[in-house]
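BUG: 3D viewer hangs when loading the predicted structure for this chain

Environment: internal workstation, default settings.
Expected: structure renders.
Actual: progress bar stalls at 90%.

Input used:
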Amino acid sequence: MRISPLLFLLCGTVAVQGQSIAIPWSGHGHDPQHSGLSKTASRSLGQIKWQTLLDMNRQYVGDNLYIHYGTPILTRANTVIAPVKLGADGNFQVTAFHATSGAVQWTEPSDYILPPHSWTPPFGMTLTPKNRLYFPGSGGTVYYRDAPDADSGTRVQLAFYGLTFYQANPTSFDQNVIINTPITSDRYGNIYFGFQSAGGTTPSLTSGLARIGEDGIASFVSASSAAGDGSITKVADNCAPALSNDGKTVYFAVTNNSSSISYLVSVNSRSLAPQSAVQLKDVADPTSPALVIADSSASPTVGPDGDVYYGVLENQLGYHNVRGWLLHFDASLSQTKTPGSFGWDDTASVVPASLVPSYHGTSSYLVLTKYNNYAGLGSGDGVNKLAILDPNATQNDPITNGVTVMKEVLTVTSLTPDAEFRPTYPNAVREWCINMAVVDPFTRSAIVSCEDGKTYRWDFATNTLSETVMLTDGRGEAYTPTVIGPDGTIYAIADGTLFALGPSTP
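Structure tokens produced before the viewer hung:
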């Protein structure tokens, strides 16, 4: 979904380097690097096998649904676990479904309280290599449940600042401390997440990044300390922390309350000692900061070579058609590399170069992003695309002349005309609706959803949308993920509903 008008006015196992978590889908972006690479081959997009509501109280704004739904998790035993929103503005429960039928296997309530927001943030869970499910709770606490494939189990509450402090004064923590990012697990079962604090608690907390070790030992680092800048106030909302390929470094974005200055930072994954920070700048005007806003669910992606990618908005909304930029850095964050021409509300997926037969460049991997060109915003014409980009080759930016960006390797345009913008924009088509696309190395394709209510297979060999299934009649939405389960079932979210997709015949 494009930026709101008000904001516009106001401002099988695949061998992948460094990847060792043998979980079909452990959280946002599949793995700690957020590669989006499936370890199993997808089945065909023949039909809807089952569907279930993830939102019991959908809040529409006109015909639009400004809600980021949390990423479904798939266990090795093929249990589907997803957050379900019960209330108008929160009140979540965690629900496990049987993958073959969609029948409810178990539910766990959560007392999680959402951070202040415009678009509803995602409820971000994670599954560790030891099959421990973590999900957020109130007051900056987290819950975990072991054996999530069983019909029943015991849940345990943890607090990164000490559970005894929480138990002594839960009201104070519930009112002042909130988890504001999805939770990420590393390959050892340590978890990381951002939190924001308004103060007023004992011990006193300053917004930052928390770590809870697999051994239960917890620590945290303030956002300002990680950036080395006292004006920084929090970890960027909805920004799932990412891990380096060797697991030694955590990457995340931090910002101040007005988004007037932001950094991509790295800390030591064990000690949380700050390592590096780079201020996020506008690509076309490097003297101005890029914008990192609370409505975005962009998170860092770590490439197989250690490079780090993170999506931002342009400083003056509109000159780049509110597409933003995919900023690109080396592992140390000391070298700024060629950016991509779209970054808003998107986490880039990794595409091994061998999956694109027409590619003859020198890069070992490519990146997949949305490439929407929003009608009515700046010079946007509504010709909304997806793109596979070469991170090491360049071209002139298609929107802003004189800016160098990653070279387009493949692009594909949405198929459905957008009646809202035609005939003023005669070629306008519906937006691509993904904040993370799953890449299937086995079929050389990606599974992508569109605001026309359909999910498609983008075939890299033919550069066509080779398969399609209709989920809904279509509507404007905050962007959602696509996922592949261990049996090849495809999962997509549209209109607050989780759809399980597979072949027309068993």
